[in-house]
Request: fold
Amino acid sequence: MFSRLLTPRWVLGHLVVGALFVATFFLGWWQLSKAEAGGGAVNWSYALQWPLYGFMGLGFYVKMCLEEVRRDPEDDEPGTDVVLYQRPRVDTSGDPELAAYNAYLAELNERALQQRADHG
Reply:
């Protein structure tokens, strides 16, 4: 169940998100030091915003991890989706060269469908 979150790709994601989470607090501390040294309202607002960005990103990542744990692995199997097919319409108006090409494509499509029906 949780073993899906221990693949190399997920572990790399955990490390990157953890590093970015810590970095937002360092950036907030840096903006706070700039604000205390005489910076304006922008520095004070960024000092509050950087940690909020970190918590927001961490929250999204935790949600993504929970969705991965709850996901059914059989959904990745090919052939589980329903595919609706609509036969293409042949455009016979306008350019006769285009109409001939569309008729050729429709013929190829019919052959492919016939082969699929014969082998499937």
User: Anything to note?
Assistant: The radius of gyration is 28 Å. The chain has two domains: 2-76, 85-120. Residues 33 and 47 are 9 Å apart (CA to CA). The mean pLDDT is 85.
